[in-house]
């Protein structure tokens, strides 16, 4: 799959970080749908190839949101971004505020799923 066809929902309450992340991902051809808040009704199965959630100041809400998505559709790719002190075994998560690290992680997710993102 070409990266410009890959749809990523990026949920991040911090406008500056969200803007940087969106810019890096768009630069690499991803179709980004930025969101300020977690909205369960926006995450219907099959709408996005990946849902990225920055837990920010609501780690419990973000974790429950991600778990609810995978309960509805176990094939939905979800990436949770957390603070350095958090450990989440058996979940796909990352610790970093560097937008390029997010790009690396997203590329790895699609390679693991046998989806080739340019």
Strand content: 15-25%
Q: Write the element-wise H/E pattern from the N-terminal end onward.
A: EHEEHEEH
The helix count comes to 3
Radius of gyration equals: 13 Å
Structural class call reads alpha/beta
Supply the CATH superfamily name.
Response regulator
Q: What order do the strands of the largest sheet run in, or round the barrel if closed?
A: 2-1-3-4-5
Uncertain residue ranges: none
Summary, kept brief:
Helices cover 35% and strands 19% of the residues. It has helices at residues 15-27, 59-72, 99-112, and strands spanning 7-11, 31-35, 50-54, 77-81, 93-94. The chain has a five-stranded parallel sheet, sandwiched between helices.
Structure keywords:
alpha/beta; Rossmann fold; globular
Model description:
By secondary structure, the chain is α/β, with parallel strands linked by helices. The chain has one domain (3-112): 3-Layer(aba) Sandwich (Rossmann fold). It is built from three helices and five strands. Strands 2-1-3-4-5 form a five-stranded parallel β-sheet, with helices on both faces. The N and C termini lie close together (8 Å).
SSE order and pairing:
Elements: E1 7-11, H1 15-27, E2 31-35, E3 50-54, H2 59-72, E4 77-81, E5 93-94, H3 99-112
Parallel strand pairs: 1-2, 1-3, 3-4, 4-5
Helix pairs in contact: 1-3
């Amino acid at each position: 799959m070409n990266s410009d066809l890959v749809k990523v929902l990026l949920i991040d309450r911090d406008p500056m970080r969200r803007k940087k992340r969106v810019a890096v991902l768009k630069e690499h051809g991803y179709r980004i749908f930025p969101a300020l808040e977690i909205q369960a009704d926006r995450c219907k199965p099959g709408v996005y190839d990946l849902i990225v959630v920055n837990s920010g100041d609501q780690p419990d809400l973000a974790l429950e949101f991600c778990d609810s998505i995978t309960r509805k559709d176990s094939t939905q790719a979800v990436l949770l971004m957390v603070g350095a002190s958090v450990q989440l075994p058996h979940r796909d998560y990352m610790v970093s505020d560097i937008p390029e690290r997010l790009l690396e992680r997203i590329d790895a997710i699609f390679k693991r799923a046998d989806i080739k993102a340019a």
